[in-house]
Write a structure and sequence with these properties.
Layout: H1 4-10, E1 13-17, H2 24-33, E2 38-43, H3 50-54, E3 59-62, H4 69-78, E4 82-85, H5 92-103, E5 109-112, H6 118-130, E6 136-143, H7 153-168, E7 188-190, E8 193-199, E9 205-213, E10 216-224, H8 231-240, E11 246-249
Parallel strand pairs: 1-2, 1-3, 3-4, 4-5, 5-11, 6-8
Antiparallel strand pairs: 6-9, 7-8, 9-10
Length: 258
């Protein structure tokens, strides 16, 4: 029979980086509330990363900023800690460098999640499937004006999934006769998919994937009204990452989406 002390010690011991931020605060509360997780450290930008090692952390939740996140993750991997990342800015180059580091630490798992909302991940997956069967597809992502990056990581991830799906189906880019757009009104081109970013007070996090064919339109929309929408995904990541060594990009990697 397992003792209570053994049960406690077997729980993931979580250090939250960016604990005082807009995502960090509800994440700290979610980890504290979860009976199968143990919160051992809450770090801000002025704190030493050594503190999470000294606290005995086994898992790290990085909710910081793009400038700091790669350094944080590299430190955690070097110390054998599993990492769940909710920070944007993880380019192909940065992920490639991380994959090389993880090859030297094959027991460590890292999840980089552009979006922790299970509903948002499902919406992106549905959009990628639908994009195989229509002529045109564009993305409109809408967020509060305090968001520092555009397009959003979710939109970039969605565009990538759509592009991959359409390529597998033998489809080219959406038709577009535009030849003159000096002000960029047609939006960003991400993996061949047009993405339009809206920043408006009163919004939180919203995305529409608009798909069109002759005589019809399909809109797949997801709305997150507060950061509580992300907490089930955060907890799923923390509970799963140790069993998935190497790098997983996207929470959909932990869902059975075929």
């Amino acid at each position: 029979m397992t003792s209570s002390a053994q049960t406690s010690s077997s729980r993931p011991r979580v250090a939250v980086l960016g604990a005082s931020g807009k995502m960090g605060r509800p994440a700290v509360e979610a980890v504290e509330t979860a009976e199968d997780l143990e919160l051992v450290a809450q770090l801000g930008s002025a704190d030493s990363l050594e503190e999470m090692v000294e606290a005995g952390a086994t898992h790290v939740l990085d909710l910081t900023v793009p400038e700091a996140s790669p350094r944080n993750v590299a430190f955690a991997v070097e110390h054998g800690l599993h990492v769940v990342v909710g920070t944007s800015g993880w380019s192909d180059e940065r992920r490639s460098e991380l994959t090389e580091q993880l090859a030297e630490h094959p027991e460590v798992g890292v999840l980089i999640a552009p979006n922790f909302s299970v509903g948002s991940v499902l919406a992106s997956a549905f959009a990628a499937q639908a994009a195989r069967y229509v002529e045109s597809v564009e993305i409109v992502e809408m967020h509060h004006p305090d968001k520092v990056d555009a397009p959003s990581g979710t939109a970039v991830r969605t565009a990538g999934l759509i592009a991959e799906s359409r390529a597998q189906a033998g489809l080219g880019p959406s038709p577009d006769a535009t030849t003159h757009d000096p002000d960029g009104a047609r939006g960003a081109l991400v993996d061949g998919v047009r993405v339009h970013a809206v920043r408006l007070r009163g919004l939180v996090a919203h995305q529409e994937v608009m798909l069109g064919g002759p005589g019809e339109q399909l809109v797949i929309r997801h709305d997150a009204f507060d950061r509580g929408a992300y907490m089930p995904g955060v907890l799923l990541g923390l509970r799963t990452v140790a069993s998935r060594p190497g790098l997983t990009y996207g929470l959909d990697g932990y869902l059975d989406l075929g």
